[in-house]
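$ ./design --mode recover --in tokens.txt
reading tokens...
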């Protein structure tokens, strides 16, 4: 999910999480103690019901939202090129949503759900699945999947993103729908957020073993770098980077602390340049701090932890399958991905520069042997301690390789 939906974090991206938190999250996931939903590989939209025109309006970004969203005519103006699929698919989606909501929800209930009675605008988040808008996974069907997410605009025009604002409206919306799944005209599927917990509960012995292995691997990292359950991911990053700076000539505590504070406080580039006031700091060391300050080295220092979480993610997703595909359809989708992935890798190696090839190599290493590749869904989403996270396993490096290939192809052509 992107655009208005924002970025859903991988666990290693939240540097406020402690190592104890990571263990508790893994435990809650593997024991099905928290709600886990399928993350689908579609196109995210936010939609609202406009009672003045009796129509659905959609938004893809904040600018569209503040302009009141787009109806069918607005979509045609936004995407006038009839050869591009966006306009066609969005117009079709608006029609499907409008007919579905009118058919299944009473008018007075609609006014409560979409905020009309309280002077608010409620925008719900959904994912559009369509053969013409395929990203990585080809589902081969049309579907709209609702997310447990949305935005409320109050009577003063303020945008409220907190889950406490959207939840009463979302719960009422979902409660008004009798089924979790609808099939319209044998073409479009409408789905509530796709629950994964039953699949987890069906494989609890597997997940018990996975949890044991994850804790063992995490304990190994903690022991090696003298990390405790109370230390955060940020602490781990700082400790690893501190050792790296010491190996590169920052020998005194004064110099080391000056470099660390410069990197972490991020007061401005002048703060980096002020390091040159220390006579013993060389231009090489200054350049090194500048690169770290800019974020270039961040994931290098997190790599052992990132790999541990990535391996857990891959194994967590292994027994799961998408509710949008049969096992046969899933097999064909993976087969298609393998073919496209090999073509992308070949193209990048042929036309990419060394830096791009290095990016490819790092992501390809996570995937391993392409012929052995398998995953049954894009990933899962869950909320823990009022924050939303995702596990996407192999999908993340595959998607990165696809994007690298797109950039290489654009530059080459």
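writing sequence...
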């Amino acid at each position: 999910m992107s655009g208005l939906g924002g970025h859903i974090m991988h666990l290693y991206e939240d540097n406020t999480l402690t190592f104890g938190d990571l263990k508790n999250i893994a435990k809650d996931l593997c024991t099905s103690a928290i709600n886990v939903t399928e993350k689908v590989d579609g196109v995210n939209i936010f939609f609202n019901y406009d009672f003045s025109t009796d129509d659905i309006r959609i938004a893809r970004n904040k600018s569209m939202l503040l302009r009141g969203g787009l109806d069918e005519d607005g979509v045609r103006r936004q995407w006038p090129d009839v050869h591009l699929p966006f306009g066609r698919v969005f117009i079709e989606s608006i029609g499907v949503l409008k007919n579905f909501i009118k058919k299944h929800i009473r008018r007075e209930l609609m006014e409560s759900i979409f905020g009309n009675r309280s002077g608010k605008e409620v925008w719900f988040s959904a994912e559009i699945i369509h053969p013409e808008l395929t990203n990585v996974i080809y589902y081969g069907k049309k579907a709209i999947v609702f997310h447990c997410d949305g935005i409320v605009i109050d009577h003063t025009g303020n945008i409220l993103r907190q889950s406490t604002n959207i939840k009463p409206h979302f719960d009422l919306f979902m409660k008004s729908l009798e089924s979790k799944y609808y099939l319209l005209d044998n073409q479009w599927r409408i789905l509530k957020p796709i629950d994964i917990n039953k699949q987890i509960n069906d494989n609890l012995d597997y997940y018990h073993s996975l949890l044991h292995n994850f804790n063992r691997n995490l304990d190994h990292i903690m022991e090696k770098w003298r990390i405790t359950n109370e230390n955060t991911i940020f602490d781990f990053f700082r400790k690893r980077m501190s050792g790296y700076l010491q190996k590169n000539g920052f020998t005194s505590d004064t110099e080391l602390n000056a470099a660390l504070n410069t990197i972490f406080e991020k007061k401005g580039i002048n703060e980096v340049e002020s390091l040159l006031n220390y006579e013993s700091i060389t231009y090489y060391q200054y350049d090194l701090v500048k690169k770290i300050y800019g974020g270039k080295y961040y994931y290098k220092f997190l790599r052992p932890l990132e790999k541990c979480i990535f391996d857990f993610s891959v194994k967590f997703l292994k027994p799961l399958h998408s509710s949008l595909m049969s096992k046969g359809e899933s097999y064909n989708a993976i087969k298609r991905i393998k073919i496209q992935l090999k073509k992308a890798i070949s193209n990048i190696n042929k036309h990419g520069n060394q830096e791009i090839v290095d990016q490819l190599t790092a992501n390809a290493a996570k995937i391993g042997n392409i012929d052995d590749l398998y995953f049954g869904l894009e990933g899962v989403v869950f909320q823990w301690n009022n924050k939303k996270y995702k596990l996407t396993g192999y999908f993340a490096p595959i998607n990165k390789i696809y994007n690298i290939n797109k950039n290489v192809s654009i530059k080459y052509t």
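exit 0
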